[in-house]
Specification:
Elements lengths: L1 E10 L4 H11 L3 E10 L4 E10 L3 H11 L5 E6 L3 E7 L4 H12 L4 E8 L5 H5 L5 E3 L7 H13 L5 E4 L8 H5 L5 E5 L11 H8 L3 E8 L9 E8 L6 H24 L3 E4 L2 E4 L1
Parallel strand pairs: 5-6, 5-8, 6-7, 8-9
Antiparallel strand pairs: 1-3, 1-4, 2-3, 9-10, 10-11, 12-13
Helix pairs in contact: 1-2, 3-8, 7-8
Length: about 280
């Protein structure tokens, strides 16, 4: 017996839920959990269905395709652990949080490797028995460095890349290799204070809340579909350095929660937004 998740997205119409659930019944599949959402502004229907049973994927999906509108996007995903490769620079808090949550089981993910453009976080990574690859960018242009990155990444065939405070901008060619499969944590409550030194920008503006944003990476810097956000309050006594330190806890929590949603197949990307079920 297997567990799988069916993700369905199409234009809304009467009877869509019944059509899907009737096909599940026809194939003797037990529905463990089902959630749906209709975006009334665009008339889009989204549904996430967790299933258990004995699957014949080909005939099941053929029935789904026949029953639903022709423009339906659907995907049947096995419930096994997702493989990720994490890219890092020097800051340890986001990587350390993911490693600890993997270790204690609160984040059910297979971390295949960690790759850094410095070797600063190698000892931390290897304490958890995970391979670390140091791919220096020194003396290389961006394209040359990314080719070396890809050579290391491809040997692991990851489902997703996680940028855990990886402080380099990726080229469009690199991003295209992992369309909507690169998750970044930005140390700001986007769309405010994009780009470099957001805490300094926040300090200069005198903000009273700071936050973090996890999003999919696109070719528009820090403007990809947002997966999760959170904020904390600050006041006039906080210097830029204090804001950055306080922001570390927000960053690591937002990133791990976003990763958990993505690897659990809860996230639909719709245009430049997400629907999370």
């Amino acid at each position: 017996m297997e567990k799988k998740t069916l993700l369905t997205h199409c234009k809304d119409a009467p009877g869509l839920i019944a059509k899907v659930t009737n096909i599940c019944y026809k194939h003797q599949l037990n529905i463990i959990h089902n959630r749906e959402f209709v975006d009334t502004t665009t008339n889009d229907f989204f549904m996430r269905t967790e299933l258990e049973g004995y699957f014949n994927d080909q005939t099941f999906l053929a029935d789904i395709e026949q029953a639903l509108p022709k423009d339906t996007n659907y995907k049947l995903i096995s419930s096994g652990r997702k493989r990720v490769v994490i890219l890092v620079t020097k800051e340890a808090h986001c990587l350390g949080d993911i490693l600890m949550k993997m270790f204690d089981g609160s984040l059910d993910v297979d971390i295949a490797a960690v790759i850094g453009n410095y070797d600063t976080l190698q000892s931390l990574t290897e304490k958890f028995g995970i391979p670390y690859h140091h791919v220096s960018h020194e003396g290389l242009n961006r394209e040359e460095h990314e080719q070396k990155l890809l050579a290391e990444i491809e040997q692991y065939s990851p489902d997703y890349l996680v940028l855990a405070k990886y402080m380099r901008v990726l080229t469009p060619a690199f991003v295209e290799n992992f369309h909507h499969r690169i998750i970044n944590i930005h140390h700001s409550f986007l769309p405010a204070f994009i780009g470099a030194k957001p805490y300094q920008q926040a300090f200069d503006r005198g903000v009273k809340i700071i936050g973090a944003t996890a999003h999919f990476v696109t070719n528009d810097l820090d403007e990809g579909p947002i997966i999760g956000q959170d904020v904390i309050t600050v006041d006039h006594t906080y210097r830029a350095q204090d804001m950055a330190q306080a922001g570390h806890d927000v960053e690591k929590n937002v990133l791990s929660k976003a990763l958990n949603k993505v690897i659990g197949d809860h996230v639909f990307v719709h245009g430049n937004k997400t629907v999370i079920l």
